[in-house]
Design goal:
There is one protein chain. The chain has 185 residues and is mostly helical. The chain has one domain (5-171): Glutaredoxin (3-Layer(aba) Sandwich). Helix content is 39%, strand content 8%. It contains six helices and four strands; from the N terminus they run βαβαααααββ. A two-stranded parallel ribbon has the order 1-2. Strand 1 (5-9), helix 1 (14-29) and strand 2 form a beta-alpha-beta unit. The radius of gyration is 18 Å and the shape is globular. The termini are far apart.
């Protein structure tokens, strides 16, 4: 099977949300899977010396008209949230933890987090709100604990001069994944 499509996304990006709703069908059409990779656009903007689309004169105004039109064209429900943009470390960490535990659950979890933000107007920048979203998924029955990432899951700092790809959330191996220490004889 060909390598999966690497889909880099930020939960604060409305275009990322629209793409997340369509990427699996595109990948399937070409016999590929999807490798869901959360990133931090704010860090990428900082490294690239640019700013978010919505804050750029003319481009931001155009995007405000284009987003609802694009959503309608693709048949995707979209309601711009009352708080926009948001910091997305919390949902990115949850996806990284899901990738560590079971990658097959990433697609439904990414879509659930995006829909919580861009349809239900839930502030997924709040770790408690983001952690509550998986409870509504079939893989996580109501009342089941959400896949909370360990304290060791960190967001890598952006180092000036490094490639923007380095400005993404990075998993750190939690202590539970280390082999147990062998007792001395």
């Amino acid at each position: 099977m060909p390598a999966p499509l690497e889909f880099h996304f930020d939960f604060s990006s409305p275009y990322g949300y629209l793409a997340a709703e369509k990427i699996e069908a595109l990948a399937t059409r070409y016999g590929r899977g999807v490798d869901w990779r959360p990133m931090l656009l704010g860090a990428a903007f900082k490294v690239a010396g640019t700013q978010p689309l919505m804050s750029i004169p003319l481009k931001g105004d155009y995007a405000k008209r284009d987003l609802p039109r694009s959503a309608r064209f693709h048949g995707i429900e979209l309601r711009m949230p009352s708080r926009f943009p948001i910091a997305t470390q919390a949902p990115a960490r949850i996806i990284l933890w899901q990738r560590e535990c079971d990658r097959s659950g990433c697609a439904s979890l990414v879509k659930a987090l995006y829909r919580a933000y861009f349809i239900a107007n839930r502030d997924i920048s709040d770790p408690n709100v983001a952690a509550d979203v998986p409870a509504g998924l079939a893989a996580h029955p109501q009342g089941a604990p959400a896949p909370l990432p360990p304290a060791g899951l960190v967001v890598a700092p952006t180092t000036p001069g490094r490639h923007p790809r380095s400005a993404r959330a990075q998993p750190a191996r939690p202590p539970a994944h280390r082999p147990p220490a062998q007792p001395e004889p």
